[in-house]
């Protein structure tokens, strides 16, 4: 079953069970997937659908952070509950040790020794870690390793 099929099935299940908050999130993500398909005139595969989900998660994390900074914890909690629903569709996340090992391997493979090689390293890491690690954290780790 593809990721899009799973999303559509979960929308139907949420409708049947009357879970309005989950249904709202699932409809939002299916709309984002359909919008990208229409904009680009393509049929999204699982990797592209996963990228749309990750983008939605990233937006919600940023919103939750902004709400917390603005002393609006109730709105931050709403964003975090939406993140929890969306994370169900991500593959199993890598451990810190696995991320560190992947970064070290990519740095060695690319031969990067300073910040000028960051793009090369991230180019190697993105397809390997997409959906399995927070790429902002990975980027920070690469930056700290290359600047040391």
What are the salient characteristics of this protein?
single chain; 2 domains; 148 residues; mainly alpha; Arc Repressor Mutant, subunit A
Could you walk me through the main structural features you see in this protein, from its secondary elements to its overall organization?
The protein is an all-alpha fold. It has 2 domains: 3-87, Orthogonal Bundle (Hypothetical Protein Yqey, Chain: A, domain1); 96-147, Arc Repressor Mutant, subunit A, CATH 1.10.10.410. The chain is 78% helix and 0% strand. The protein contains 7 helices and no strands. Helix 1 (3-17) runs antiparallel to helix 2, helix 5 crosses helix 7 and helix 6 packs antiparallel against helix 7. The N and C termini lie far apart (44 Å).
What is the CATH architecture term of the largest domain? Answer: Orthogonal Bundle
In DSSP terms, counting alpha (H) and pi (I) runs of 4 or more, how many helices? 7
Shape: globular
**Percent in helix:** over 70%
**E-strand count:** 0
CATH class annotation of the largest domain: Mainly Alpha
Strand-residue fraction?
A: under 5%
Q: Number of folding domains? A: 2
Low-confidence runs of at least 5 consecutive residues: none
The average pLDDT value, as a whole number, equals 94
Order of helices and strands: HHHHHHH
The N- to C-terminal Cα distance equals 44 Å
The main sheet comes to:
none
> What fold name stands as the CATH topology of the largest domain?
Hypothetical Protein Yqey, Chain: A, domain1
